[in-house]
Amino acid sequence: MTMVMSAAMVLSVACSSSEETNLSPEEIEQHTSAKALRVGVVPIEECLPVTVAQHLGLLDSLHADVLVKRYDALSECKAAKEKGEIDVMVEDSTIAFTFLTSKKSRIHRISQLSDKVIAADGDGYSTKLAYEAIDSLLKQKRHVFVIRVEDLSVRTRMLMTGNVDAALLPEPWATMAKKAGAYEVEGQRSKVKGRRAEGLSKKFREALRVASDSIDRYGKENYAYTLDK
Question: Which of 24, 177, 216, 218 has the greatest number of CB atoms lying within 10 Å of its CB?
């Protein structure tokens, strides 16, 4: 059975009434979860492309075969993953991060980051990516400073104004920074991971790309409400 057929079957089950299928809402979700990549999201900016993709119906129309599960706090989302209730979350690079350097810094390679400042999320996935990228420099006892900047708008602005030398950003903030002249360090874009990710990532990433384009066009403030739905 092809993936498209599987996705269509999932949607059919999800859209049928419990009376027609003889399944309770809990059983319908359980059936859907067994076939889809279960993605945990929380009301933070990094999850905006996912919630917008869901709101615009992109996950269904592109047959991304993704089930979005919402949590009030990151701790709840992490606990759900540990229990096996979800497959991936924002820190698992459900949303790809891009390693960018400031136009003012004129840095094009990781080896040029000695004594430079990188902005990331503090203790989340982008910080992990930052340390993985600079691992060779640290092994050479060279100093690189990774600072905590949680707010994505602030992190993007700091990169564009040259207040930091580099930053890790998800979409649509990465595209905004590149339009302002930020440089994408080759080979440092994170990849989607997780159960069945190889088969799903292309459609899921396409949904995120379209959602990010819409956020970039209309502004994240016009879609902020999707985080709380």
Answer: 177
Model-level pTM? Answer: 0.56
DSSP 72-97: SSHHHHHHHHHTTS-SEEGGGTTS-E
Kindly report, residue by residue over 137-179, the tens digit of the pLDDT: 888 989 999 999 988 889 999 999 999 999 998 777 888 899 9
Tens-place pLDDT, residues 186-196: 655 544 333 34
Residue type, 95: I
